[in-house]
Design goal:
The chain crosses the membrane at residues 30-48, 60-80. This protein has 114 residues and is mostly helical. The protein has one domain (1-112). The chain has 4 helices and no strands. 29% of the residues are buried.
């Protein structure tokens, strides 16, 4: 199961990055590629188990899942709006994902759950 979640995350991340990068060129399929990739990343993060039961890790996991949902919301902004709302949403999501990707392993290491 862990390999499936890792593969889902990796493929989704590549699609997310490619869709966001190509969106700037105006290619009509890029928002769809981005949204599918963001959904795959969100599903991988929601379904990845956490061995740590501390309240800090639970809070960080909620922030991580919120960031993943913001990634999917960014896809909706790309599809349905013509402004730059998607950039704000993507920036907030990326900051949440970056912060939690650093802090969760630190907290798990404190618990000895490397």
């Amino acid at each position: 199961m862990k390999q499936l979640i890792s593969a889902l995350f990796a493929v989704g991340a590549v699609m997310l990055l490619a869709g966001a990068t190509v969106y700037i060129t105006g290619w009509p399929l890029s928002p769809y590629i981005y949204t599918i990739g963001a959904t795959m990343v969100a599903l991988a993060q929601i379904n990845s188990p956490s061995k740590c039961r501390s309240s800090i890790v639970k809070r960080l996991r909620r922030q991580q899942i919120f960031g993943a949902l913001l990634l999917v919301l960014t896809g909706a902004f790309m599809l349905f709006t013509r402004g730059n709302e998607w950039i704000v949403s993507l920036t907030i999501a990326a900051l949440l994902e970056l912060y939690t990707s650093v802090r969760i392993p630190q907290e798990e290491a404190k618990e000895g759950l490397d």
